[in-house]
Inverse folding.
């Protein structure tokens, strides 16, 4: 009875030994494959990392390329605008160059014009109502002296001449009171009087004691005496011209137009 049991035990042991031998053999045969597979996996992981890096670099390059293209588009618009401005500046330069070439011609023409204007202004003042004679004569003398000066630009000379004309124009639409000397023609010589100028319509005087009054007769180029009826009006006009009272109606004699 004991022999069969030992036989089974021996068979079992042999079977187990056979299995263990086969497992060891299998493990020995599969190890190169497993090692190679691990190497392949490591290589694939490294390749994937490389691909990721390349993809990131490509994305960065693409973004930089888009930014450069956008900047190029902006530069094209800017260059087009600058080109138009340069063309306009070239036209202006040409216009200025033409004007500069004509300056000497204009200067030669405008100087005789100013001299004629000054002569005309001198004649006008001499024939005009004789108010502020010394002031107006001094202004004309100053213009004549200025025309001979080399340190005064032609533009400034022309401005001064126009300014003198404008002053004369303003005299015709203003009222003014000032003091001066007048020859009354009564043997008393010159006396200090108050003048009242109403535009160029009337120029009258009144002595300081208010007893004598006169009006300039432009047609006869002389002073004519005024009646006492005008005394209050002349006094009112003097006060108005000196800003001592508000503007009001006054009566003065005027010469009839011819």
């Amino acid at each position: 009875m004991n022999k069969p049991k030992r036989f089974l035990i021996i068979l079992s042991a042999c079977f187990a030994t056979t299995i263990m031998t086969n497992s060891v053999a299998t493990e020995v045969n599969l190890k190169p494959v497993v090692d190679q597979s691990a190497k392949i996996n490591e290589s694939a992981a490294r390749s994937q990392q490389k691909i990721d890096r390349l993809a990131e670099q490509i994305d960065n390059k693409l973004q930089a390329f888009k930014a450069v293209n956008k900047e190029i588009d902006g530069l094209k618009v800017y260059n087009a605008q600058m080109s138009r401005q340069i063309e306009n500046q070239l036209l202006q330069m040409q216009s200025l160059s033409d004007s500069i070439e004509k300056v000497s011609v204009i200067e030669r023409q405008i100087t005789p014009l100013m001299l004629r204007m000054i002569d005309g202004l001198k004649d006008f003042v001499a024939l005009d109502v004789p108010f502020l004679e010394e002031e107006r004569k001094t202004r004309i003398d100053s213009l004549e002296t200025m025309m001979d000066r080399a340190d005064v630009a032609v533009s400034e000379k022309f401005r001064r001449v126009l300014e003198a004309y404008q002053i004369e124009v303003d005299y015709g639409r203003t009222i003014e009171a000032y003091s001066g000397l007048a020859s009354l023609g009564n043997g008393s010589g010159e006396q200090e009087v108050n003048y009242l100028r109403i535009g160029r319509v009337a120029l009258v005087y009144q002595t300081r004691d208010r007893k004598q009054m006169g009006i300039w007769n432009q047609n006869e180029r002389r002073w004519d005496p005024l009646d006492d009826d005008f005394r209050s009006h002349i006094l009112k006009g003097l006060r108005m011209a000196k800003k001592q009272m508000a503007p009001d109606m006054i009566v003065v004699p005027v010469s009839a137009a011819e």
About this structure: Strands lie at 175-183, 190-198, 202-207, 213-217, 222-225. Residues 175-258 form one domain. The helical segments are 2-127, 133-147, 154-171, 231-241.
